[in-house]
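Much of our argument rests on the idea that a fold can be written as discrete symbols. Part of our work consisted of pairing the sequence of a single chain with a tokenised description of its backbone. The amino acid sequence and the backbone structure tokens for this protein are reproduced below.
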Amino acid sequence: MAKLSEVIEEDGEGPSNRVPKRQRAERAFDIQGSGQEESEEEEESEGEEASQGGEEEASQGAEESEGEEQLESGAEQGEMSPHTAQDGSISITLADPEVLDCSICYEALSIPVFQCENGHIACSTCCMKIRNRCPSCSTPIGYSRCRAIEKVLESVKVSCQNTKYGCKEAFSYSVKQKHEKACSFAPCSCPISECYFEGSSENLNAHFGNVHKYSATRFLYDRLTAITFGVFEKSLILREEAGGSLFILHNKVETLGNVITLIRIGPSTEKGLFYELIVKSQADASTLRLQSFTKSTPKWVDNPESLGFLLVPSQFSSSSRQLKMDLRVCCSDRFSCYKRPSGS
């Protein structure tokens, strides 16, 4: 639902008259009908005319008094149209919401909006991409602002697409794309393959703790946790005990050994956490160490993007073909000396 601010006035009546048109028309009809009855009764009897005339005057006076009371009551209560809110805004439905999207990138238009000589519009970013040449008519674009569309974008209020997952934000259409990219209620999927639960990261963590409590290796932030899994095991789900955050330790077998990465289940714009992986050789005293930041993904992927990986040579695995390592994920600010990559 879009929301627009608009002043509503009835034609020819002015904003001060709050009595509905139908009510005023009915009262006028009653008065006119009374006049017709009076003229008919005049033809029948002069004596009855005087008596009935007095009664009609009293009745008419009562109706006028009642009408004035209704008028005052309507003015005091501030009667409005059924579709008009108390703040003067109205709710409308856009039959084609794409009219507020850029015809080039198909994303929500953002201010400033430019138009060519023939009225075709585009967002400022696309104007630069197309070298200020309108793709529809080849006329110059990117020099003349479309103020009308900009006012519409500022006036229209929309709800986040993640409303059903708990987001209650309402914002201008021009910032729709920006908000939804950073929305903390973006849906995240359960990492258990047989489970189809989808919800906000907070709800997902609660769901996992209630339904799949024993399907993950538990650990605590800022503490070393010993982890063991098979050389050919593709992944291991980790769950932080205090807050319930979910992580996945991915394992990819390569010719030289195993490639280990750590990701976090959550909105893609979630802030990355510093972590440390330590692997010791079973044959000698060699040690491998990885220090990096987590990257979040809203759902399970076989080949996730990561900011770092640890290549563990084959000789580091035990005779039982298992990898043993220590993991520490830090939630405190004591590692602020490490520069976090943007977007992590």
About this structure: Helices lie at 21-44, 46-77, 124-129, 147-155, 176-182, 201-211. The first helix runs from residue 21 to 44.
